[in-house]
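Page 37, continued from 36.
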């Protein structure tokens, strides 16, 4: 037998392991120092009370014969898909419940969606990039082209009309840069996709952090229903990183190569996926209730306040950055022309603050570093004070 030889083409990403190793070494050698982690990519605040109540109630129902439930439907319970559809409507976007597929988080579908597309397709990703898009397509043996995000385009890469792509991954608000596409910019991508007969895979995992009129969904853009699939998640919206629930939206009219994409995806899901647990779907539906939305907003506001502390400090120091306003990520240019790892070491040793070196997310990340707003308020304030005095 042979294994999938494409796995040999994966480049080992040492980013988080190396960050952890350098941090551990520093802590070992300097036990008296309080190191503050500003690279955390996971949420830190607990689930909203109404969400926990709904999860408990769901579990209770499973404990009684009359209300017990077995396998859920592949695409998710109607009550949750209705709730998600209602959430889209509140944001001015029409998505019907039967265009929604509930899943165990956006990461799974961002990778699994490749099952329904040919290996011959050319994949376009923006650089720097969330590594899942790249690695899942390398595993399938697809060719990948990169659209550079940089200071010139405000880390919002735009299409190069001379480059053809079949599958386009866009993430807005972006991980790792925090940059967000405007409606006008997304329209350019939609037009490019339609011209190329391509499909946009739009990752809106951070949509809940948008605080201005930037689009929260690709389907807010005219023409997107004919060329896009959207992946969203409750991970960052409602602290579900450990609870696991997300959703994928495929418009009914999306067709390619003589096939209806929604039908292909249903066929794929019904073959390889058996749904999300009932208590988790109850919890997810509670997020979209009036009370749920108000409670999750409190957590988002907490992270947003942290983000503002970081961006205010960068403004004061005159350091170029993207993100922070519509995102829990702040992507900063390393001062004095330092490389990502040089600045990482300097921050660790002189300010005892840990960030994430940008070059771990791609070539265009060289010379940048990512901070996140997921630390505590007190730690964020302290970390920024230290950085200010280090660079003053
Ligand atoms: N998409 C992006 C851009 C992310 O940053 C993440 C998580 O870090 C995910 C998707 C994964 O989300 P989930 O927890 O729903 O799998």
């Amino acid at each position: 037998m042979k294994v999938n030889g494409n796995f040999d083409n994966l480049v080992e990403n040492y980013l988080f392991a190396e960050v952890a190793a350098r941090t551990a070494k520093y802590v070992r050698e300097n036990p008296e120092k309080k190191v503050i982690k500003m690279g955390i990519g996971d949420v830190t605040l607990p689930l909203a009370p109404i969400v926990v109540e709904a999860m408990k109630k769901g579990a209770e129902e499973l404990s009684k014969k009359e209300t017990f439930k077995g396998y859920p439907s592949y695409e998710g319970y109607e009550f949750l898909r209705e709730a998600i559809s209602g959430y889209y409507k509140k944001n001015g976007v029409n998505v019907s419940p039967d265009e929604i597929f509930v899943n165990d988080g956006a990461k799974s579908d961002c990778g699994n969606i490749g099952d329904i597309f040919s290996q011959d397709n050319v994949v376009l990703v923006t650089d720097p990039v969330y590594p899942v898009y790249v690695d899942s397509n390398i595993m399938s043996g697809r060719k990948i082209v990169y659209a550079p995000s940089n200071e010139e385009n405000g880390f919002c890469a735009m299409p190069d009309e001379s480059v053809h792509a079949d599958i386009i991954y866009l993430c807005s608000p972006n991980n790792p840069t925090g940059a967000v596409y405007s409606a006008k910019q997304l329209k350019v991508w939609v037009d490019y996709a339609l011209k190329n007969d391509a499909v946009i895979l739009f990752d809106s995992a951070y949509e809940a952090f948008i605080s201005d009129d930037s689009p929260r969904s690709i389907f807010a853009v005219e023409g997107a229903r004919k060329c896009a699939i959207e992946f969203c998640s409750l991970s960052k919206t409602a602290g579900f990183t450990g609870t696991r629930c997300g959703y994928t939206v495929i418009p009914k009219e999306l067709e390619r190569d003589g096939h209806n994409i929604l039908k292909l995806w249903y066929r794929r899901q019904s073959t390889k996926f058996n749904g999300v647990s009932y208590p988790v779907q109850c919890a997810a539906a509670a997020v979209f209730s009036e009370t749920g939305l108000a409670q999750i907003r409190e957590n988002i506001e907490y992270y947003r306040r942290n983000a503002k502390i970081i961006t205010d400090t960068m403004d004061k120091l005159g350091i170029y950055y993207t993100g922070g306003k519509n995102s829990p990520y702040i992507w900063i240019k390393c001062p004095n022309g330092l490389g990502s790892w040089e600045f990482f070491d300097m921050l660790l040793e002189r300010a005892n603050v840990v960030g994430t070196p940008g070059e771990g997310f791609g070539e265009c990340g060289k010379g940048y570093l990512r901070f996140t707003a997921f630390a505590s308020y007190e730690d964020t304030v302290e970390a920024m004070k230290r950085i200010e005095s280090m660079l003053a």
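The chain has two domains: 5-47+293-391, 49-291. Flag for discussion at group meeting. Residues 49-291 form a domain with the Aspartate Aminotransferase; domain 2 fold (CATH 3.40.640.10).
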